[in-house]
Amino acid sequence: MNYDVAIIGAGMAGASFAYEIASAVSDQYSIIMLEAEDQPGYHSTGRSAAFWTESYGGPQIQPLTTASFDFLNDPPKEFSPTGFLAKRGAVNIMRDGEDHLLRGFLTEFAESGVTMTPWERDRITAIVPNLKAGWDKAVYEPDCCDIDVAALHMAYLRAAKRRGVTLSCKARVETIEHVDGAWTITAGGHVIRAKKIINAAGAWAGEIGRMASVTPIEIQPMRRTMVQLRTNPPSTPEMPLVVALDGSFYFKPEAGGSFWLSPHDETPVTPGDAAPEEWDVAVAIERFHSVVDIEVEAVSRKWAGLRSFAPDRLPVYGFDPQQADFFWFAGQGGFGIQTAPAAAKLAKSLFLDMEREACARSLDAGLYAPARFAG
Ligand SMILES: Cc1cc2nc3c(=O)[nH]c(=O)nc-3n(C[C@H](O)[C@H](O)[C@H](O)COP(=O)(O)OP(=O)(O)OC[C@H]3O[C@@H](n4cnc5c(N)ncnc54)[C@H](O)[C@@H]3O)c2cc1C
User: Which CATH number fits the domain that encloses residue 188?
Assistant: First the structure.
């Protein structure tokens, strides 16, 4: 099987990139997406907390998140007639005595244009009832939204397929060799030849880089735990995302009056099928109890997923500095959904050496270039 481009991984990264390239040049390029699992979206993409919030990931991620808003909110009609976002609002909250965190947070985003309003207790308790004493200040981000992640991912896959991209599942890439100017890849019992590789393998991106003998970029997977709680009182749909400014938890209301809660854990692990640890579930509930007076009746669901980071915690988009036929699209950390549209458009312009679309024009590609790891 011969292709111009082989994309490794069909999560949000691979799917969004496949769509963008195929939209630009489907008549000139044959593209295959190789996915190890039975179905795409089994790993990080299917396990996210599903929010879009501009401050999440820090000021060097925010431009990617902001630039993705228009696509997520009002995508091309073939994607969705209604868009993928639903207004939520985020309360970035602090304990008494943590004013330095609040000041630092506001300073970090002072030039960003992100709407942020300092709130006192009475404003907070109007939308976060049962708030315990000692949590009296917050920064409110009204623009935070929920993302319909599954619909977005499926829409990218469908749109890519319509443009001729082949998706091959149960095709775990096992070997990669560069011979006579082309890649030979073995995956799922097949041998595939491709002129270029795009590494969108999420937690396995470092492993794929090593397999291809390109610049060794360490992409470290970190386990993050999520629990779904049944509580008394239950959540209400108008509650916001509540994020601790000290990075110790977040929670938000979910369908049926439940909460989704994370202890914001980051445990370095080897790539694999992440599962939650009881300890992290207990820590999550303890932290929830420290901020709201809400009884936890049951953990109705728990899961874990991998957020994968380069050493500087910025994503890696671009051609390998030593191997011009290998493109990195990795290190999407905890922001790979909310940044997907702009990231894929930026990466397309780098991959095809074409002019950037308006939303990606002001992004600083140098920040995310793999060349920063050369030497
Ligand atoms: C608990 C949690 C909460 C999160 N919350 C949010 C959030 O609210 N908002 C947000 O924007 N982001 C969030 N994220 C981050 C987001 O989920 C990720 O950044 C994003 O899903 C990464 O997409 P990906 O395609 O790179 O990875 P993945 O979805 O993991 O896809 C990579 C794919 O590559 C495949 N693969 C790997 N190795 C091979 C191989 N050798 N051969 C073939 N295929 C291979 C895998 O099977 C996998 O399907 C969260 C993550 C977690 C874990």
Answer: 3.50.50.60
Task: Quote the ligand 1 centre to 150 CA distance (angstroms).
Answer: 12
Q: Which atom of ligand 1 is nearest to the CA of 174?
A: 41
Q: Ligand 1 center to residue 331 CA distance, Å?
A: 9
Atom of ligand 1 nearest to the CA of 203: 30
Amino acid at 321: P
Q: Which of 307, 314, 327, 368 to mutate to test the pocket of ligand 1 (most atoms within 8 A of CB)?
A: 307
Residues 350, 354: Cα–Cα separation, whole Å: 7
Considering the domain architecture, whether residues 109 and 41 belong to the same structural domain is answered as no
- Give residue 375's pLDDT: 73
131 DSSP 8-state letter: B
Give the pLDDT of residue 318.
Answer: 98
Q: Are 287 and 194 in contact (CB under 8 A)?
A: no
Residues at CB less than 6 angstroms from ligand 1: 8-14, 34-37, 40, 42-45, 47-51, 172-173, 200-204, 224, 226, 305-307, 332-338
The verdict on residue 72 lying in a domain is: no
Q: What is the CATH number of the domain that holds 294?
A: 3.30.9.10
Give yes or no: residues 303 and 343 share one domain: no
For residue 42, the model assigns a pLDDT of: 98
Is residue 286 domain-shared with residue 240, that is, in the same domain?
A: yes
Residues 109 and 247 in one domain: yes
Confidence of residue 119 (pLDDT cuts 50, 70, 90): very high
Inter-residue contact 148 to 311 (CB < 8 Å)? no
For the chain, the domain total comes to 2
Contact 11, 40 (CB under 8 A): yes
Name which residue sits closest to atom 16 of ligand 1, judged by CA.
336
Taking the centre of ligand 1 as the mean of its atom positions, its distance from the CA of residue 284, in whole angstroms, is 22
Does residue 66 lie within any of the structural domains?
no
What's the rounded mean pLDDT across residues 188-194? 96
Q: Which domain holds residue 241?
A: 90-142+221-309
Question: Is 222 in a helix, a strand, or coil?
Answer: strand
Structure confidence at residue 331 (pLDDT):
98
Q: What is the whole-number distance in angstroms between the Cα of residue 299 and the centre of ligand 1?
A: 24
Taking the C-alpha atoms of residue 302 and residue 274, their distance in angstroms, rounded to an integer, is: 11
292 CA → ligand 1 middle, Å: 31
**Same-domain check for residues 97 and 200:** no
